[in-house]
Amino acid sequence: MQFVEAQFVQAGGAKIPAIGLGTWELRGRTCARIVEQALRLGYRHIDTAQVYENEREVGDGLRASGVRRDDVFVTTKVWTTHFAPHDLERSVKESLVELRMPEVDLLLLHWPNPHVPLVETLGALAHAKRMGLARNIGVSNFNVALIGEAVKACPEPLVCDQVEYHPYLDQAKVREACAANGLAL
Fold first, then answer.
1. Which member of 43, 52, 165, 168 is catalytic?
2. Does residue 52 carry a catalytic annotation?
C-alpha cells in the first residue's frame, strides 16, 4: 500500500501515520485479533500504553498480521507511577518485553505527575531514547503551561502532545502551544 504525505504528521524528525488504531479498553485475544486485522487493512500506527494492560496482545497482533515491524509505527505510554528516573527505565524495558520489540517508535509520558519533578522525568525519558529504547519521545495530556515547561526542560526533542481532540472538546490553545513549540498534536 502506498501512502501520500498528507497521511502523515511530521514533527521533530518523526513521521507519524496520521490515523492510528487506539487500543484502550481492548483486552486479550480480541485485542490481538483487532490489531492483526487493522494492520492487514492498512493501518500503520498502533497506539497502546502500559496502563491499558494489553501491550503483549498488541505485539501478538502485529506478529500475526504478517506486516513487517519496520512498516508499523508503534506508540506506547509510561504510566505516572513510573516517572522517577530508575522506575521509568525499568518500566520502558518491561513494555518492550511485553511488546517483544527492541524499541518503540514513540514513547510518551501518559499524564503529568506533579509528585515527580518534570525535569527528572524528562531526563529519564530522553535517556531512554538515547539508550535506543524509543526512536522518538513526547508527552500526553499536557496543558499549555506544561508543554512550554517540558520543551524547555527536555534534553532531547519532544515530537508531540497526544491529547483527546474532537469537535466536542476544544483544544485550540493546546494545538497553538504545540505549533509554537514545533510539536505535533
1. 52
2. yes
